[in-house]
Every structure is written in C-alpha cells, then in structure tokens.
Batch of 2 targets.
Target 1
Amino acid sequence: MTGMPAPFHAFSLQHWITLAIGALALAALVVAGKRGGNSRRIATGVLAFANLTVYPLGVAAWRSLGEPLALDKFVPLHLCDLAAIIAGFALLTRCRLLCTLTYFWGLAATSQALLTPALTVAFPSPPFVVFFVQHFAVVGAALYLVLVDGWRPLPPLWRGPGEAFGWGLVYLGMVMCVNRVLGSNFGFATHPPDNPSLLDHLGPWPWYLVSSLGIAIVLFLLLALPFRRAGER
C-alpha cells in the first residue's frame, strides 16, 4: 500500500454506524439460530468460523498495510484473541467451561473493546474490518449460547463468575510473565492502550490492574443474576 489509512476515532459517526451494523448482524444470526434446522446449523457455523479464523485473518490484515508488525499482532495472547478461539470451540463442542468463559469474558470484557477499541486505523482498512468482526463474533457467541443453545451457568450463583474470574487471574499471571520476558503488552498488563479506554480512569500501573479485577468480578456477578433459580430470588 502507498500509505497508512486514516486514523480511527472512537465515538465518531463511523464508530456508531459500525456498532449498529454489527448489532443487526448478530440479531440476524440469533433469529436464524432460533428458527432451527438448517438455518441454525448455518448460523452456528458462521459464528464458529468467524471466531476461529479471525486471528490469522487479522495478521494478514495488518501485514497488508506494509508496516513492521509488533509482536502482539503475531501472537494471539490478548484476552479477546483467546476469547475468540475459546468461543469458536464452545460453539462446536458445547464444553461447559468453554461456554462459561465465552459468556462471562465475552460480555464483560470483549463488549468493552467494542466501545473503546484498541484500534488505530479507520474504515475501509482491513484491520478495521477484522477487528470489529472478531469482537462482534465473540459477543455474538456469548449471546448465541444463551439465546439459541439454551446454555446456563451451573448453580450456585457464584460458580460461573468464580470460574471466569479464576481463569482470568491465570491469564493475567501468564501474560505478565510473557510481557516481562518479551517486553510486550499482552492484556494491556504493562500499560494501557494508546487509544482512550476505561483503563485510563483506573489509576496508574499496577493499580489499574487491581481496579480492573474488581470491576470484572462485579460484572461477572451481574451477568449471573438473570440465571438465579426461583427459590433464590
């Protein structure tokens, strides 16, 4: 390419239009899934395919810009990269743990990335398209598992949030070790992203990590509330 595309600006008209298009696409997949039969198989396949292929497509998209790629563009160790892989296999296998992580990580974390994208280039650049496809695919898988497949977290109420939080701690510990060795910023565990994000308002490192964990467990518990048994209300 002859030059870098225009920069992306959060909360611009382009951003809002993209969110609206993505929401409509997810709604269409859920409606198709609830129709059952072949429509459901196609909708499930589309979501699974999107989640499992989007990372290599993202690498190709960034390479198409003709610029040297940072390590985090080659290795799928950001939380949303792992969440996409987990979501794809959750849709195909219905593994309980994978479904749990997809639901809680997808709706509590990946949805935040849609609102404050760690993205530097605007439409119609390939990285822009792949970024939003990836994050909508994860959120879509989380909703699809509940609304179409009928997945529910196992009781008691705290079990699902506890599993999601525990594996989140494992992930954070892993990427902090990787970042220390490689000088990378996977999981934004070394510093917040360059674009504006929620992390900018949670204090300096390492306190924003502690604040993020606190917000995460609150969100996980809130996401579990719709599944309370009648006797627990």
Target 2
Amino acid sequence: MTLVPRLPAHAPSSIHQFLRSHLAESGAQGLLVGLSGGIDSALVARLSRDAVGAEKVHALLLPDAHYSPALRTEVEDYAKSLGISLRIIAIDAPESAIRSLFPEVTDRLSWGNVKARLRMVLWYLEAREHHWLVVGTGNKSELLTGYFTKWGDGGVDLLPIGDLYKTQVRELAAQLALPRSVLDREPTAGLWEGQTDEKELGLPYSELDQILYGMEQLRTSPEIARATGFSEDRIRAVAALVQRSRHKRRPPPIPKLGLRTIGIDWRE
C-alpha cells in the first residue's frame, strides 16, 4: 500500500472550469491573485490566466520591509510573462501604524497575522473597486493543518488549488513548466524574516502529505505507520494539528434558535 497522493490527470481542466464558472456566475469582471513569489501563488496565477484569459487576471504584490528586491523583480517578470497586470503596494506604512497603537505586543506570530490580514484588506479593497473576485492560493496541506491566517490569507472568494496537496501542487507546477526559481524556492508564508513552512510544521511536505492522505482515506494510525514507515507519534501529532485547526475551516458557530439556522440546517 502506498500513501503518496498522485495528481489527477483532469486537475488542470477541472480547475479551469471551476474558475470560469464561478467568474461567470458571480457577474464579476475578473480575478485578483495575491502574488508572493512562491509556488502556490505562481501556479494559481497561471491557472487563472489559462482559464479566463490574461486580460481578466490581475495580480497584487504586497511586500514588507524584508522582501527581497531581486524577488520583486522576479515577480514582475513572471507577471509580464503571463501577460497579466501587476500592482505593487508596500505594506510597511500601515503595519507601522498598527504597531504604534500596540507597543506592548511583541509576539512575532501576532504581527505575522496582522501582516496577512493587512494583505487581505488590500486585496478586497482593490477587488471591490474593480469588481473582481479574490482568488486564494491555499493548498490542501495548509488548509488541513491550519497553516494559514484566519481572515488573512484564508479570507478569499475562491480556492482553486484547495484540493491539491503541496506535493501535487509541485507536480502540477512542474508539468506546466513554471520557472525553475519558483519550483526550487523553499516554501514560506513570508510573515517574518527566515520563516519557512516546513520548519514551522516540523516535517517536510513529502512526509506530511502521506500522513494527511492516509487520514483522508480513513486509515488508522497503525495502518499509516506501516505504509509510510513513520512513527505513530508523528502521525498523531499531524492528526492533532488537523483537529486543533477545525475552527479555521468552519464558519463562525451560531446557536440554534430558529426553525432553520445558518450553517446547521440552512445551507447554501
């Protein structure tokens, strides 16, 4: 038994159709993607361009003080290669303004979340002005482990790669011949200098995805351990991440008082 998730052959065409249909149904005029220089946003921008055409895809790069000038140039070149528009807005000034209001807050995760939520605010300000949908770049590995900021990078209209594990994202990006620099770059949320996904998660995506895929197939911890060779302690740690982050994948709970309650028996 193997627990390595494989990329479905129909993934690109299904994602293209998903984007086209949601854009048409919404009545919006285009799609907005937050480009960062990472593989997820680069892939989403490419899939969006291929789905609806370059003239309907717009990118927003929101660098902070630590963002590399070389990476900024690379993102500009990538957007140009796709033929999509790109706007760049530094978030240093609004971040500094908020920091001045809360000098007692020193936790870097708190300020990382502020950064992510600032970006969400700017995405929606731009999207509302032009009647665009905000297209998120979260993948299945991040969504299941809660490796995203609630109402930050998780605050979007669509998640086209939300059913692809990170290893599948890499496979599709390679299949579409995304730039080598994008394929090779170490994954990071970019919330503080030196941050990396795998350092925070405590294990590489190549291992994480096997465990998550086993959980998706409703395998027990011993079964996943036998198939992967990983310890049951490691598998239980991943399961705990999934359990603790359930609130991030759900709408805010509402107590049932009426005949039909949103999120309980009134579903959209």
